[in-house]
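Worked Example 4.2. Consider the chain below.
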Amino acid sequence: MSFSLTHLASTVTQAEDAASAWPATAAAADAELARLAELLAEAGVTVLPAAGILAVPGLAAGPGDTAGIRVRTTSNPPHALYVIAASRITPHAGADSAFAHLHPLIEAAARPCDGCGAEASKPCNPNCLPDPSTD
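Applying the procedure from the previous section yields the following structure tokens:
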């Protein structure tokens, strides 16, 4: 049995709707990156901007991560904000989505680490294993 996909000419398909949410141009993606830098600055996070990339050295993807977080755009489609953390790349359609993704890391950076005793806003010691009771 086969099914055919049909929709009315006046309706928007999910794929078309999803595609419209992504920045249409590299300039639009750069504007989203600038907006993310503003959101992070308002949250008290230090960012180091460069062309097409934000380095966020004060945030870590987890205990023992000393590389920090980076967010970048690309000049070729698909245009997005790519959050790079601990060898994982997560695409986001805009600044709000990327900020929501980073928000738990911002909150974690504001707390001291029970696993190694690192102070708030200081990176964990290498090989730190967080206290499981704090998860």
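Confidence is low (pLDDT under 50) at residues 1-19, 131-135. Strands lie at 48-50, 53-56, 69-72, 81-85, 88-92. Compare this with Example 4.1 before moving on.
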